[in-house]
């Protein structure tokens, strides 16, 4: 039998039983483990005194704490000695995670979830992010292959159009020269079992301009996105292509439309795209159509997002990894989110950022049932199988025309491929990235399952792709297999917490120029307590990272709008600065009262010299001793630069400058300690902003 105590502050808490103690019948004992920042150690130590006073006699506890390191619990595991200490405690008994309480729970730590948490942090909300897998980033995932970072999910960056937040942030942090054009060289179309493979260059053995079927394909890109060319709302794009060009699945050029267009751009097949729906979506598209990639061979998309934002988001929120959410219950006053480990998490609101594929799988049980319109919305959006397969070769065997290859469309399972090592500056690797989507993704997944899955499955997938590539060029028959060195299979369709690649417009996803299933999914349910956000809910740039970021931000803003109208402001769960709370409790923090009090306190002033001229008339806290006590209690929060100490000439100065409206260099100049965990103006501003509630 387990006896559990729920003991929580900003610490990660666990409770486990000690059988010998349970023998004390009236008060079954418990063994609590506190893991957290060392600022909380004194509070954790004192819990024994309070629990005894409350009549708990058989209780013991251990504390594992650490200074400076971020309070994010997983940081403890990265520290070998702390990790061993905690592991030893955990090994000593059964563990049951205690429940948590936050303002908002965000389900999913992908782009939408993390940006939602970032926005909520800025408003001052206490946020718990719950992620099913053991990593953050979702469909933004980078890995190393050869001498470059390859992107296993999102790879292309959109330019600034459409209020894309990524572009300016990357440009400011890394300089615009980090961006390069992704597809360098000439395009090749594999045709007729390699006999008539053509290249888009006049010097090639078979120039594409001599192939009339390829010329037909060229006109397609000016036609597919025009709504008045696709009037039948129930027609697939495959049907419209058959009507317009006379090309169906039996035609030699069908794979150009299927692998090249439907697979390459929408991660599905031609017969799954709704012709009118796609045209309506394309007409609403408001991101740039032009994309670039990161030319630095040591940086992938995930690496830069971590540096730009995610490290801070994780430091400012609570994060639970490896905890798939299984139910969301809104039948009571609170939202109760339960994960697969049995832990329950109570919040006022929840933002669900899982993929359309995960929603369609219905792995999350909503109690009560979701409204029919919401269910129809996620069922009405497409999401298919697919994978990214980067492979390293000993030579660029595909350059049969003596030039770099920009883009290859194959007839078989590889689908479409490009060469990321060509755009990574100074790379000496030869890496081909293949993109088998829709039916190709399903067929390869079946091959992997038949081979036994796991590593054997991945090897079988790569063998099947190599077999397709081996017959791509008449001048390089068999060369893919001969030159192959190593590869990675990122099978998004089989990933249980993505269940597809990205969303696409199927028949009925878009019904008019302004209505879509995506928009329907944006409506909050359960009286403004459950929100959906992710790439799949964006109407004007879905299926992208910027779309996911914008949707996370939209849901967070919507929550705040509802709460401020109610009013139901954030609790400032991480601690608020407002040391001189007005009688009317409007929670204002001012430079000449709160800021001055803090800096004087940190200089060691007491009594009249602390408060003289620094207390507003309507302050509820007027007494110097009371203010000293209050600021002593708040000391952990006052370490603004995170160097482990609260100092007048760093933290005090930072706060008062901020309250005077300083920002950027003027805020931090000469006021950040050498050991600061938060050293940039952006980090300092975010930290303080988070502690001043926005009403
Ligand atoms: C192969 C591929 C190529 C792409 N190329 C580009 C590109 O070049 N440019 C571009 O801009 N975009 C691209 N995208 C799209 C882009 O990656 C996505 O639009 C974006 O990352 C989606 O973010 P999201 O937060 O909506 O979803 P996700 O990133 O999928 O995040 C959802 C999170 O929820 C978690 N989760 C799922 N179920 C549960 C559960 N029950 N409990 C808790 N957590 C759960 C998941 O593990 C995941 O971490 C590509 C995507 C893929 C897969």
Bound ligands, named by name, code or SMILES: flavin-adenine dinucleotide
CATH superfamily of the domain at 105-137 and 300-382 and 500-565: FAD/NAD(P)-binding domain
Q: Which residues form runs of ≥5 with pLDDT under 50? A: 1-28, 67-71, 581-586
Mean pLDDT across all amino acids: 87
Q: What is the overall shape?
A: elongated
Backbone structural class: alpha/beta
Residues in helices, as a percent range: 25-40%
CATH class of the domain at 105-137 and 300-382 and 500-565: Alpha Beta
Q: Work out the number of β strands.
A: 29
The profile of the biggest β sheet is: 8 strands, mixed
**Number of helical elements:** 26
Radius of gyration: 29 Å
The end-to-end span amounts to: 46 Å
CATH architecture of the domain at 105-137 and 300-382 and 500-565: 3-Layer(bba) Sandwich
Strand content: 15-25%
CATH topology of the domain at 105-137 and 300-382 and 500-565: FAD/NAD(P)-binding domain
List keywords for this structure.
695 residues; 8-stranded mixed β-sheet; 5-stranded mixed β-sheet; 26 helices; disordered N terminus; binds flavin-adenine dinucleotide
Structural description of this entry:
The strands form seven sheets. Strands 12, 13, 22, 23, 24, 25, 26 and 27 form an eight-stranded mixed beta sheet that branches. A hairpin with an 8-residue loop joins β12 and β13. It is built from 26 helices and 29 strands. Among the domains are: 87 residues, no CATH class; 182 residues, FAD/NAD(P)-binding domain, CATH 3.50.50; 100 residues, no CATH class. It has 695 residues and is of the alpha/beta class. The protein binds flavin-adenine dinucleotide (FAD). Flavin-adenine dinucleotide binds next to α5 and α19.
């Amino acid at each position: 039998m387990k006896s559990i105590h729920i003991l929580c502050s900003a610490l990660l808490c666990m409770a486990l039983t000690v059988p010998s103690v349970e023998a004390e019948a009236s008060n079954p004992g418990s063994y609590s483990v506190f893991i957290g920042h060392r600022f909380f150690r004194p509070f954790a130590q004192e819990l024994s005194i309070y629990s005894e006073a409350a009549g708990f006699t058989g209780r013991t506890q251990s504390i594992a704490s650490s200074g400076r390191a971020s309070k994010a619990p997983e940081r403890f595991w990265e520290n070998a000695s702390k990790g061993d200490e905690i592991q030893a405690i955990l090994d000593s008994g059964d563990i049951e995670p205690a429940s948590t309480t936050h303002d908002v729970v965000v389900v999913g730590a992908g782009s939408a979830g993390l940006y939602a948490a970032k926005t909520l942090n800025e408003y001052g909300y206490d946020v718990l992010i719950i992620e099913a897998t053991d990593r953050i980033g979702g469909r933004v995932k980078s890995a190393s292959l050869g001498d470059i970072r390859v992107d296993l999910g999102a790879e292309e960056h959109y330019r600034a159009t459409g209020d894309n937040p990524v572009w300016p942030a990357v440009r400011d942090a890394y300089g615009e020269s980090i961006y390069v054009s992704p597809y360098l060289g000439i395009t090749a179309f594999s045709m007729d079992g390699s006999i008539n493979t053509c290249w888009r260059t006049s010097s090639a053995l078979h120039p594409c301009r001599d192939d009339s079927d390829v010329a037909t394909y060229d006109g397609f890109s000016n036609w597919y996105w025009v709504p008045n060319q696709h009037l039948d709302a129930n027609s697939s794009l495959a049907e419209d292509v058959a009507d317009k060009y006379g090309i169906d699945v039996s035609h030699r050029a069908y794979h150009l439309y299927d692998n090249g267009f439907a697979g390459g751009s929408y991660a599905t097949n031609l017969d799954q795209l709704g012709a009118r729906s796609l045209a309506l979506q394309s007409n609403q598209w408001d991101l740039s159509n032009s994309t670039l990639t990161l030319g630095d061979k040591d940086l992938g998309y995930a690496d830069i997002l971590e540096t730009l934002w995610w490290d801070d988001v994780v430091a400012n929120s609570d994060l639970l990894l490896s905890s798939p959410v299984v139910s969301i219950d809104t039948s009571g006053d609170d939202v109760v989110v339960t994960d697969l480990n049995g832990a329950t998490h109570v919040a006022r609101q929840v933002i669900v950022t899982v993929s359309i594929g995960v929603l369609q799988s219905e792995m999350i049980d909503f109690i009560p049932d979701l409204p029919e319109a919401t269910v129809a919305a996620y069922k009405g959006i497409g999401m298919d199988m697919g994978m990214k397969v980067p492979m390293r070769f000993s030579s660029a065997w595909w350059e049969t025309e003596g030039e770099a290859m920009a883009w290859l469309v194959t007839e078989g399972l590889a689908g479409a491929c490009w060469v990321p090592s060509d755009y990574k500056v100074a790379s000496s690797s030869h890496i081909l990235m293949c993109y088998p989507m829709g039916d190709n993704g399903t067929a390869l997944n079946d091959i992997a399952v038949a081979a036994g899955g796991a590593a054997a499955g991945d090897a079988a997938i790569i063998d099947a792709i190599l077999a397709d590539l081996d017959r791509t060029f008449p001048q390089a028959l068999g060369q893919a297999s001969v030159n192959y060195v190593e590869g990675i299979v990122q099978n998004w369709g089989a990933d249980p917490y993505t269940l597809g690649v990205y969303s696409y417009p199927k028949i009925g996803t878009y019904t008019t120029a302004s209505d879509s299933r995506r928009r329907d999914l944006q409506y909050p349910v359960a009286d403004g307590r459950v929100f959906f956000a992710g790439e799949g809910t964006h109407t004007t740039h879905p299926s992208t990272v910027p779309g996911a970021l914008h949707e996370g931000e939209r849901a967070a803003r919507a929550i705040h709008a509802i709460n401020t109208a109610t009013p139901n402001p954030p609790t400032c769960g991480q601690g608020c600065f407002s040391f001189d709370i007005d009688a009317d409790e409007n929670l204002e923090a001012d430079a000449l009262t709160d800021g001055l009090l803090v800096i004087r306190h940190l200089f060691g002033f007491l009594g009249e010299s602390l408060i003289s001229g620094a207390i507003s008339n309507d302050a509820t806290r007027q007494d110097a001793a009371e203010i000293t006590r209050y600021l002593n209690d708040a000391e952990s929060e006052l370490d603004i630069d995170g160097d482990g100490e609260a100092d007048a000439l760093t933290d005090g100065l930072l706060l008062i400058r901020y309250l005077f409206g300083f920002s950027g260099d003027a805020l931090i100049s000469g006021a950040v300690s050498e050991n600061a965990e938060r050293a940039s103006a952006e980090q300092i501003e975010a930290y303080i902003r988070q502690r001043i509630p926005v009403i």
